[in-house]
Amino acid sequence: MDGYSVVDVFCGVGGLSHGFVKEGFRIRAGFDSDESCQYAFEKNNSATFIKKNITALTGKEVRALYAKDEVKILVGCAPCTPFSKYTQGRSGDKWRLLREFRRVILEAAPDVISMENVPELAKHKAFGHFVSALEDAGYKVSHSVVFCPDYGVPQSRRRLVLLASKLGEIKLLRKTHPKARYRTVRSRIGRMPALCAGQRHPQDRVHSCRALAPINLKRLKATPEGGSWVNWSDNLILECHKKSSGKTYRSIYGRMVWDALAPTLTTHCTGIGNGRFGHPDQNRAISLREAAMLQTFPKSYRFVEPRKPLYNKVVSRQIGNAVPVRLGRIIARSIKRHLESVLE
Fold first, then answer.
1. Range of the domain at 208
2. CATH number of the domain that 134 lies in?
3. Residues identified as active-site
């Protein structure tokens, strides 16, 4: 869109940026400390990737990327780990990335801001301080915890979405998908070519899945659609799951359900031992490409440079860390509608 430009902080492989690209916005640049994301970000978004930790990033550097008279949009999703329930209570400064993002925003003074993060963040004082700082700087701020299927994402993911603008009131669009129209696992990956565990499709090397040890292959064969280790015979169950403490992890080694939502995809979403990431009926975990499609990346999204090796662990992490492209599009549409209303 002419006159509107976006800079993406914590850009990763570009899930959020690609949502903006699909809605016609220009991405000026993306910042991230993980250089393994550079190829995918640049190839799919026609934008510059800048390897830099946010602690070394200045608002002046960000502002210099925009043209003088255009609307300046800054978006970002700080990595989830510092804010998740799994790391709360541990030592260390878990709010540092949020404070650094706030610093960059205040120094760069963009016209419009979006931040996407884990829902748990909204419960902490640090988030209240973040919002107050934006309001004190002249931004109108709105935020809500979003159930992503309400916006067309086929996984049971909840995310905190914040929007802020110096130009006036701004809000996220209304829900686009009633429950009866939720997108399912089948709607996204139902037509993908079949694979065996450890196999790679000859026409798409990202459509590849991890090999399974013989015992895990037996376990998966004993798991029905929607089932997990609780469906196994006693000789297949791990010792840790026989303990009372292990019985609460009922989704581990689980299969997805064709006509239901996928679970929230994580950085370990292509391994069967990390959640309900087994294919609904094939005896394998979902492939990297299927994980990306459940994150609503286009099937054509390029993750690895041609003739360079593909590392499952790396690409799986990139996909699990990404903002679903569909959610990125909803955020972009919300900003587009806001700008059209205040600038018409």
1. 185-321
2. 3.40.50.150
3. 80
pLDDT in tens, 197-240: 999 999 999 999 999 999 999 999 999 999 998 889 988 887 67
- Residue 85, pLDDT score: 41
**Considering its fold, how many domains does the chain have in total?**
2
List the chain residues with pLDDT less than 70: 1, 80-93, 239, 241-251
pLDDT at res. 45? 98
Same domain, 43 and 165: yes
Within this chain, do residues 193 and 339 fall inside the same structural domain, yes or no? no
Q: Do residue 161 and residue 199 come from a single domain?
A: no
Burial of 321 (0-12, 13-18, 19+ CB in 10 A): buried
Q: CATH code at 275? A: 3.90.120.10
Contact between residue 320 and residue 286 where contact means Cβ atoms under 8 Å apart: no
pLDDT of residue 89: 45
| Cα 326 to the center of its chain, rounded Å | 10
Which pair of structure tokens corresponds to residue 25?
């916005």
CB 292 within 8 A of CB 319: yes
Q: Are residues 200 and 113 in the same domain?
A: no
- pTM higher than 0.90 for the full model? yes
